[in-house]
Design a protein that fits this description.
Chain A: GO terms for molecular function: D-arabinono-1,4-lactone oxidase activity; FAD binding. The complex is a heterodimer of chains A (445) and B (251). Chain A has 445 residues and is of the alpha+beta class. In chain A, 24% of the residues lie in helices and 26% in strands. Chain A has 14 helices and 21 strands. In chain A, 54% of the residues are buried. In chain B, helix 6 links the parallel strand 5 and strand 6. The chains are: A alpha+beta (445), B alpha/beta (251). Chains A and B meet through strand 1, strand 2, helix 11 and helix 14 of A and helix 5 of B. The complex binds flavin-adenine dinucleotide.
Chain lengths: 445, 251
């Protein structure tokens, strides 16, 4: 079924209209691809990308969310086969009680497998755990010729690594096989430290030793010195699980959704209010706390608030996320100062340490520091974001396409040096340019 | 594509030498590559505009366009869209003849009506079709407070602008749900080439101030922009006047 309607990303900016195709099976999807008009076709998952990555104005958008079956779980080998519309949440509910976990999850469990592949998402354990693509064994890709190919990294590395991070522009991922890792309990031991000063925060972020350690810092830029809360989590041992749950330590406790409080947008866009909401400014809190939390509570803190993206009001918001190389500390410091002087007040920001990148041609993660900041969208942000993009590009860093909605084509080409290779593969795979998106139009991908 | 900060990547200016239109384009030029299509008849003034925008980093194209020839509009504008999306189009052409001259010369009156109204309707339809197909776009229609209630001193011009405003107000509503938006600008007296021969009233605006009000309305998603701000009050007063009084207005 096709209905014309406006779409935006999670940031609720720049709506455009598309014909949204829902409920399509493989045959219908292949027909839609073969009969694509001049505005093309694009797959869309849960719409959790912040900008225009999952929009295709004037064309067809294939909503994949109803394709949500888990096809097979190999409980011995630790491999799950799932349709592309299955969410991370659904996968965890299925595999965690059986002692398995996805090795890489992003900060929201609502994203789909297709979206996780298209953005080659990373988690808080990227330093040693790598990105999503490192754990994808194979996927079925519907390409521009209307055929379905099975793509494995060893057999077809070009298509595989163009699709991982390729933002849906190589085709539609229909199904995927994902490698799982063992899990003893569905709980995490989380140590939170209140830290003042950027150097101390960075040192703390650098402490992860293995792929099951998750580290992140929420930082507050409003004062003269950066303050933050460093969270460090590792899987909890059975003995650490709260007694009430110890009999069934693998029972998956998903985040219980709370409706977003009906706060006026103006109130929430004030940095102090936001900071308070994020717990950064709780000055009274002790300097170090250790808690044992359900996995989801630590991994997906924002999922507890339904539709929190509405608090920024009618114009929506941008989440700006960039990464700079490990030694570009001066650039990181300069970027933080630029953000702190922003027109809409000081944004709350999240800082992480990423490890080496993978072979994804447009994959975001690379060795370095990554910072994400939410800001209400406004024309007055233009100079700030422009300055950030300049700084980041000059330092050899890049902006995350899954979050972006303001980058220019010029910066894009500088930040993603493998863009020409990506274009070349797209030309062979999709000579007519069937797969298109607003992101691709904006950035001339 | 329009980005999250409301910045277009391509602008089509119909009436490519309009002062207000060029001021709007200038506001969207901020050092990023902006594709600008100037649709106008060839003139020294057009060449000047091309040179000026190019020197500020815009990638400028020109299209031979005559507002008075509606049968040529579809063919003239098709190539603009064929070369890439048009994110924002400004309908800025218009004639402002002297009222007495227009009443003394039938051809002048007819020409004013056909450029200001028929021409505007014609491009409005072409733009609406092309932008609906691309699934997004903003149309800015430069109309006038003179169209709110035409007066003895300006009813040839005013009646055409009344028609233009009515058409674009209707177009705005008809395009809801298509991804295309329309902003109808009700401009009061703005000092520009078009009004250079007239003596400016006390609250006259400038093209730059008009452009600021217009880009603000685009960002806010408003259907109407008044510029200068006093135009709105003026329009309300004139609308409220009894006809007997209106008839005697000297301006
Ligand atoms: C609260 C929150 C926290 C986040 N945290 C992180 C994080 O920590 N790390 C991280 O990496 N990202 C993070 N993200 C971003 C998110 O993981 C990515 O944007 C992801 O792509 C969203 O998946 P989706 O299913 O919502 O896809 P959509 O947003 O619908 O689409 C995103 C892209 O995927 C493509 N796509 C979707 N499905 C398919 C398919 N079946 N075949 C081909 N292409 C497809 C689309 O075309 C589009 O280009 C976060 C987002 C939110 C809202």
């Amino acid at each position: 079924m096709t209905t014309a309607r406006p779409l935006t990303g999670w940031g609720r900016v720049a709506p455009t209209n598309a014909r949204v195709l829902t409920g399509a099976d493989d045959t219908t999807l292949a027909a839609a691809v073969r009969e694509a008009g001049p505005r093309g076709v694009l797959a869309r998952g849960a719409g959790r990308a912040y900008g225009d990555a999952a929009q295709n104005s004037g064309g067809v958008v294939a909503d994949m969310t109803h394709r949500n079956r888990i096809l097979h779980l190999d409980e011995v080998g630790g491999v799950v086969h799932a349709e592309a519309g299955v969410t991370v949440d659904a996968l965890l509910r299925a595999v965690v009680p059986r002692g398995w976990c996805l090795p890489v999850v992003p900060g929201s469990a609502h994203v789909t497998v297709g979206g996780a592949i298209a953005a080659d998402v990373h988690g808080k354990n990227h330093r040693h755990g790598g990105a999503f693509g490192g754990h994808v064994l194979a996927f079925d890709l519907l390409t521009a010729d209307g055929q379905v190919r099975q793509v494995r990294p060893a057999a077809e590395p070009e298509i595989f690594w163009a699709t991982l991070g390729g933002m849906g522009l190589t085709g539609i991922v229909l199904r995927a096989a994902l490698r799982l890792v063992r899990l003893r309990t569905a709980w995490a031991t989380v140590v939170q430290r209140r830290i003042t000063g950027l150097d101390a925060l960075l040192t703390g972020l650098d402490t992860a030793q293995g792929p099951d350690e998750h580290v992140v810092a929420r930082i507050d830029l409003s004062g003269p010195r950066v303050r933050g809360v460093l969270s460090h989590a590792r899987p909890a041992a059975t003995a650490d699980v709260p007694p009430r749950h110890r009999a069934q330590p693998l029972a998956y406790v998903a985040s219980r959704p709370l409706p977003c409080p009906p706060l006026p947008g103006a109130l929430l866009s004030k940095p102090t209010t936001l900071a308070a909401a994020n717990g950064v400014l709780r000055v009274a809190a002790p300097p170090v706390t250790t808690r044992v939390l359900p996995l989801a509570a630590f991994l997906f803190p924002l999922d507890r608030i339904v539709a929190w993206n509405r608090v920024y009001g009618r114009h929506g918001f941008v989440q700006h996320q960039f990464v700079v190389p490990p030694d570009a500390l001066d650039v990181l410091g300069a970027a933080l100062r630029v953000l702190a002087a922003g027109p809409g007040g000081v944004p709350l920001a999240v800082l992480k340490r990423l490890g080496p990148g993978d072979a994804g041609l447009l994959s975001f993660p690379m060795d370095g520091w990554t910072l994400a900041a939410d800001m209400p969208a406004a024309p007055s942000l233009a100079p700030l974001l422009g300055r950030l993009d300049d700084l980041v590009a000059r330092a050899g860093g890049r902006v995350y396409l899954a979050k972006d909605s303001s980058l220019s084509a010029r910066h894009m080409a500088r930040m993603y040096p493998r863009l020409p290779e990506f274009r070349e593969i797209r030309r062979t795979l999709d000579p007519q340019g069937v797969f298109r998106s607003d992101l691709a139009r904006r950035l001339s991908l | 594509m329009m980005d999250a900060l409301g910045r277009p990547q391509s602008v089509l200016l119909l009436g490519g030498t309009s002062d207000i239109g060029l001021a709007v384009v200038a506001r969207y030029l901020d050092g990023r590559p902006l594709r600008v299509v100037l649709a106008a008849r060839d003139s020294p003034r057009l060449k000047e505009a091309v040179a000026q925008l190019s020197s500020r980093g815009a990638v400028v194209e020109t299209v031979e366009f005559d507002a008075a020839e509606p049968q040529t509009h579809a063919a003239a504008l098709a190539p603009c869209f064929a070369q890439g999306d048009i994110d924002l189009a400004i309908v800025a052409f218009g004639l402002l003849p002297d009222q007495r001259a227009a009443m003394a010369d039938q051809a002048t009156a007819v020409r004013t009506a056909s450029v200001n109204y028929t021409g505007a309707v014609s491009v409005g339809v072409v733009l609406a079709q092309a932008m609906t197909a691309q699934g997004h776009g903003v149309i800015i229609a430069l109309s006038s407070v003179a169209g709110e209630r035409p007066r003895p001193a300006n009813f040839v011009y005013g009646s055409a602008k009344a028609g233009m405003s009515a058409f674009y107000d209707g177009l705005a509503d008809s395009l809801i749900g298509t991804g295309v938006r329309v902003v109808v600008v009700r401009a009061g007296f703005v000092r520009s080439r078009m009004t250079a021969h007239l003596s400016a009233p006390p609250l006259a605006g400038t093209p730059e101030r008009a452009a600021a009000a217009i880009t603000e309305a685009v960002w806010r998603g408003r259907a109407v922009a008044w510029t200068p701000g006093s135009a709105r009050v003026l329009a309300a007063v004139i609308r409220a006047l009894p006809r007997r009084v209106l008839r005697r207005l000297p301006f």
